[in-house]
Amino acid sequence: MLLAVISCAFAEGTLFPARGGKADAAVLVVYSSLDEPLARPMIAGFQAANPDVAVRYEEMLTGEVHDRIVHETDAGQKTADFAFSSAMDLQVKLSNDGYAQRSDLPMSEHWPQWANWRNTAYALTFEPAVFVYHKPSFKDRKPPASRAEFVEYLKSEGEAVYGRIGTYDIERSGVGFLFMARDQEQFGDIWTVIRAMGAAGVKLYSTSSAILERVADGRFVLGYNILGSYAADWASRNPNVGIVLPKDYTVVMSRIGLVPQAAASPELGRRYLAFFMSKQGQEILSRELQIAAVSPEVSGSNTARTMRALLGAQLKPVPVSPGLMVYLDQVKRARLIARWNDVLRMQ
User: Fold this and answer.
1) Is the dihedral of CA 163, 167, 169, 173 positive or negative?
2) Nearest Cα residue to 59 out of 79, 76, 84, 78
3) In this structure, what are the phi and psi dihedrals at residue 148, rounded to the nearest 5 degrees?
4) Cα gap 205→89, rounded to integer Å
5) Which of 178, 198, 168 is nearest to 127 (CA)?
6) pLDDT tens-place string over residues 310-340
7) Is residue 171 left, alpha or beta, with left meaning phi > 0 and alpha meaning psi from -120 to 50?
8) Which of 121, 177, 228, 319 could crosslink 128 through cysteines, CB 3.0-4.6 Å?
9) What's the rounded Cα separation, in Å, for the pair 225 and 208?
10) pLDDT tens digit string along 105-119?
11) What is the mean pLDDT of residues 226-239?
12) pTM value?
């Protein structure tokens, strides 16, 4: 049955009426950076299990999720019941600064330790940073499978690949900055990679789709550090898009869910978070949203459990911890961005 949806006239976002038909049903308010069409299967699953609850889904940028919760809380107002965002650093900052409340849930003690910060902020997805490549361009050779091979490929191909490499603009892309910061921590020679990309005329974009579109049609031969969930979605619809999880190490980011301290209905927020963490919710995530699940209860190819079994220590999940806030320090952030720009411009 199609999920009935009506626009909410008195507020931003989309209202999903309670399936039970009550006009005065309790309303769960969600602030999220996930595109609303992608969120619908999870909302549908939640409402099937909770027919007495309506859902108001407010899609916004990651910075807006953080800023709105802080502003509303500081003004003494009520805010969202549940916040879901890919800005790991900003979500952890909400938790660390007292804007999130503790949620002790059925799956809390079973959740991976790296994915749970004091039962206030939970990593709900498992999304690797991957290399993407244009398959027809590699019909006579294997695509790079490590950063060293990536650099060697760029040097050996020279003019043939100039201007045909893409990655995120770390000044405009939050996930791009996160991946670069982790690269710097994990790989002592990362600036050799950046220098090689600069020499190859790398093109910078703020979105995954801009890069994947160009790989799919052959304008680009390679994309570096692309969010795996989006890459997998493009690859499922575009046979020319290939994916490599770099064998030297693969950074894994997560989208974080939490219940704000000033939630109007925190019990509804916890109910939604509990569903998100349940086996059913995590299966919806991996099968319908095509985003890998974290839960150890869920099996299948698109899960942390299977990826860990296959790749082991190669995977480097970003821990949900205050360590994420290091690069919210504007001086450190500016220093990293300045070095990035300098190294790219040196070419």
Assistant:
1) positive
2) 84
3) -65, -45
4) 21
5) 178
6) 999 999 999 999 999 988 889 999 999 999 9
7) alpha
8) 228
9) 10
10) 999 999 999 999 999
11) 92
12) 0.88
**Based on the number of CB atoms within 10 Å of its own CB, is 105 exposed (0-12), middle (13-18) or buried (19 or more)?**
buried
Nearest to 239 by CA among 149, 310, 139: 139
Residue with tokens 């206030």: 120
The per-residue pLDDT for 2 is 38
DSSP state of 327: G
Integer CA distances (angstroms), 137 to 131, 132, 219, 241, in order: 14, 12, 10, 10
Q: Are 304 and 291 in contact (CB under 8 A)?
A: no
In whole angstroms, give the CA distance from residue 148 to residue 135.
Answer: 20
| 246-265 confidence digits (pLDDT tens) | 999 999 999 999 999 999 99
Cα dihedral sign, 294-295-296-302: negative
**Residue 242 to residue 223: CA distance in whole angstroms:** 10
Residue 27, both tokens: 């309303």
The tokens describing 240, both together, are 């020319």
Residue 91: exposed, middle, or buried by beta-carbon count in 10 A (0-12, 13-18, 19+)? buried
Neighbours of 179 (CB within 10 A): 23
Type and span of the H or E element at 268: helix 266-277
Encoded tokens for 155: 């040097």
Joined together, the tokens standing for residue 184 give 């710097």
**Can you tell me the distance from the alpha carbon of 303 to that of 283, in angstroms, rounded to the nearest whole number?**
9
Alpha-carbon distance 247 to 245, whole Å? 6
Q: What is the largest CA-CA distance in the chain?
A: 66
Going through the chain in order, the beta strands assigned E by DSSP cover 6-7, 14-16, 26-32, 53-59, 82-85, 100-101, 116-117, 121-123, 127-134, 165-168, 203-205, 222-227, 241-244, 250-253, 256-260, 315-317
CA atoms within 13 A on the CB side of 39: 25
> How far is 234 from 228, CA to CA, in rounded Å?
10
